[in-house]
Specification:
Length: about 210
């Protein structure tokens, strides 16, 4: 627990949002240490944030909701980076917008390694399909789904299973980034751009 958390003053009335943000930051710090939802203790979160454990339930129904809300911050940052890149691409070319999204994904993973590791190295407790549908990773899947739909509307055909295509894009760029990061080769981002190009050529045909 940090020294600042130990002496944290009580929040005045009307500052519930501030407490929520402090709980999210505390959860993020602890997840980086323990690496899994199961190993995360709500008492430890409360201690890190400098509040009583019951205070957590004023903002989050359970530990899973707290973890997902913490991960959502990083997923939103990544989704925004992808959306901003797509907005700067050729508006008349949906493939160019998709290309920009994929490249932005790779750049974000490289430039924000701590946030990126949090998304993919946090082992999460399994939930039912109804609750899983609300996972914050859906931001990425929906983004790629909409991008592929725009490509189809422009006359492109998506090879293979259309339902799995967003996950194919996701797993492909994630896997390539991980290999790029851990291998002792020269860190040339143009290789990632080349991979994105190959991926689009394999997935789309006109």
């Amino acid at each position: 627990m940090s020294e600042s958390a130990a002496v944290r003053p009580r929040n005045p009335r009307g500052q519930g949002e501030r407490l929520r943000e402090e709980l999210l930051r505390a959860t993020e710090r602890l997840l980086e240490e323990v690496g899994s939802e199961d190993a995360l203790s709500l008492r430890a979160v409360a201690r890190e944030a400098g509040v009583a454990a019951p205070s957590i339930y004023r903002h989050f129904a359970d530990k899973t909701e707290l973890v997902w809300a913490t991960l959502e911050i990083s997923y939103e940052r990544l989704a925004h980076a992808m959306a901003d890149a797509a907005a700067e691409a050729d508006d008349a070319d949906p493939v160019d917008r998709l290309r920009a999204q994929l490249r932005a994904y790779c750049r974000y993973a490289i430039e924000h390694p701590a946030n990126y590791r949090l998304l993919y190295e946090t082992r999460q407790t399994p939930v039912g399909p109804e609750r899983l549908a609300g996972h914050p990773a859906g931001l990425l899947v929906r983004s790629w789904h909409h991008a592929l739909t725009a490509c189809e509307e422009a006359g492109w055909r998506v090879r293979g299973s259309r339902a799995e295509a967003p996950y194919l894009l996701w797993s492909a760029v994630h896997g390539r980034v991980m290999i790029w990061q851990v291998m002792p080769s020269r860190k040339d981002t143009s290789r990632l751009d080349g991979f994105v190009e190959e991926l689009l050529q394999l997935l789309l045909e006109h």
